[in-house]
């Protein structure tokens, strides 16, 4: 058995963490042979609730759970961790856009960037879930200059999973038979869920999704807006934002980053190098492949005029969010 790795979940007393902690501690993220020590960070007033979460983790009797550390101190939480899931932040409510959370949440990621810079391993792999996730990840990276910027990512995997599920339902196939749908840009209502390179397996044969669906109007309008607005639809129904599916997506993101994405593309918000004409120095979601703990943007894709308009709109929003976030952090 490998020696345990330290994994931190922030917002550990919240609703996403409630699903996520089990997935990490049961081996679905880092593999069935990798023990974990869980560091649980939340704010001081939540320590009582967190105590209950600690009790429940013990009561799960999980063989891979090698230790649990609940704390309200970021430097204690981030000490020597390999994998931070930065979930802790205010969720939006009905009628809000995710960027409306910026002024409330971005300071959390400044403070946590500073703490990571001070005490985390330099090869730490950071996943930001708390909204607005892309811009929070950018700010976190900016305040942790001793850690390579490639090590900071934002979660758009939930959007990818939603897009894949929508296409599979339309085609009447199991969800795993659809692959390579892309989420470009911001985890917001300007994101571009792009099915143009997606593939579907039908009767054992792989075909392009656009040809299999053969309904351009559906792919450019209904499909795009359903995925863009899915988070708001869940809030309208549940009166709380998605948590079960968000935790599953966070697990998928980290698992693929650590263990590899195989023959599938996955979407991750990463610091843009300007690929595909996107704004540099924003955290932009791209199709990537992952192996040996590193991600690589899929190169050489054709960008249609429609896609160009969509990429430019979401890039513009990310530039605006960055400007606002830097102002808040001054
Ligand atoms: N990127 C994505 O796809 C998704 C992102 N989200 C976002 O994830 C975040 C968390 O959502 P929920 O778990 O539903 O919220 P929640 O309100 O249930 O839990 C948030 C937890 O974070 C804690 N927290 C607040 N400030 C903190 C700090 N400075 N340090 C550590 N913990 C802190 C709170 O005390 C609370 O326990 C929200 O911002 C939400 O919008 C939610 C779904 C999907
Ligand atoms: O919509 C929200 O505010 C929560 C979220 O990010 C999502 O469900 O995608």
TrEMBL record:
Annotated family: Belongs to the LDH/MDH superfamily. MDH type 2 family.
Highest taxon in the source lineage: Eukaryota
Catalytically driven reaction(s): (S)-malate + NAD(+) = oxaloacetate + NADH + H(+)
Gene3D superfamilies: Lactate dehydrogenase/glycoside hydrolase, family 4, C-terminal, NAD(P)-binding Rossmann-like Domain
Record lineage: Eukaryota, Metazoa, Ecdysozoa, Arthropoda, Hexapoda
Binding locations of substrate: 92, 98, 131, 162
NCBIfam families named in the record: MalateDH-SF1, MDH_euk_cyt, PRK05442.1
InterPro entries associated with the record: L-lactate/malate_DH (IPR001557), Lactate/malate_DH_C (IPR022383), Lactate/malate_DH_N (IPR001236), Lactate_DH/Glyco_Ohase_4_C (IPR015955), Malate_DH_AS (IPR001252), Malate_DH_NAD-dep_euk (IPR011274), Malate_DH_type2 (IPR010945), NAD(P)-bd_dom_sf (IPR036291)
Matching PANTHER family: MALATE DEHYDROGENASE
Residues annotated for NAD(+) binding in this entry: 42, 105, 129-131
Molecular function as annotated in GO: L-malate dehydrogenase (NAD+) activity
Positions of the Lactate/malate dehydrogenase C-terminal domain: 156-327
EC number assigned by the record: 1.1.1.37
Organism: Leptidea sinapis
Domain (Lactate/malate dehydrogenase N-terminal) ranges: 5-152
Top enzyme class: oxidoreductase
Active site positions: 187 (proton acceptor)
Alphabetical keyword list: NAD, Oxidoreductase, Tricarboxylic acid cycle
SUPFAM superfamilies in the record: LDH C-terminal domain-like, NAD(P)-binding Rossmann-fold domains
Family annotation (Pfam families): Ldh_1_C (PF02866), Ldh_1_N (PF00056)
GO biological process, one term: malate metabolic process
Protein's name according to its UniProt entry: Malate dehydrogenase
């Amino acid at each position: 058995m490998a020696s345990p790795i330290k994994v931190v979940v922030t917002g550990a007393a919240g609703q996403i963490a409630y699903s996520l902690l089990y997935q990490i501690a049961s081996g679905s993220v880092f593999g069935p042979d990798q023990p974990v020590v869980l560091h649980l960070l939340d704010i001081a007033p939540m320590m009582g609730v967190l105590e209950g979460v600690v009790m429940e983790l013990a009561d799960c009797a999980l063989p891979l759970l090698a230790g649990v550390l609940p704390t309200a101190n970021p430097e204690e939480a981030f000490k020597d961790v390999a994998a931070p899931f930065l979930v802790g932040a205010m969720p939006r409510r009905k009628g809000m856009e995710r960027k409306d959370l910026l002024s409330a949440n971005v300071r959390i990621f400044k403070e946590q960037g500073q703490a990571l810079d001070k005490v985390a391993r330099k090869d730490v792999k950071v996943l930001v879930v708390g909204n607005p996730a892309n811009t929070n990840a950018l700010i976190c990276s900016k305040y942790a200059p001793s850690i390579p910027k490639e090590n900071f990512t934002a979660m758009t995997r939930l959007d990818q999973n939603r897009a894949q599920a929508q296409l599979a339902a339309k085609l009447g196939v199991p969800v795993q038979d659809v692959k390579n749908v892309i989420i470009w840009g911001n985890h917001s209502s300007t994101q571009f869920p792009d099915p143009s390179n997606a593939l579907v397996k039908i009767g054992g044969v792989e075909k392009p999704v656009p040809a299999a669906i053969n309904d351009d109007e559906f792919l450019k309008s209904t499909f795009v807006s359903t995925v863009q607005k899915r988070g708001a639809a869940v809030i309208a129904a549940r009166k709380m934002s998605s948590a079960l599916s968000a935790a599953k997506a966070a697990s998928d993101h980290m698992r693929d980053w650590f263990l590899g994405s195989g023959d599938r593309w996955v979407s991750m918000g990463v610091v843009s190098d300007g690929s595909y004409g996107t704004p540099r120095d924003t955290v932009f979601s791209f199709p990537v492949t992952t192996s040996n703990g590193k991600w690589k943007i899929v190169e050489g894709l054709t960008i249609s005029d429609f896609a160009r308009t969509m990429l430019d709109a979401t890039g513009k929003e990310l530039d605006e969010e960055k400007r606002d976030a830097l102002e808040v952090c001054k």
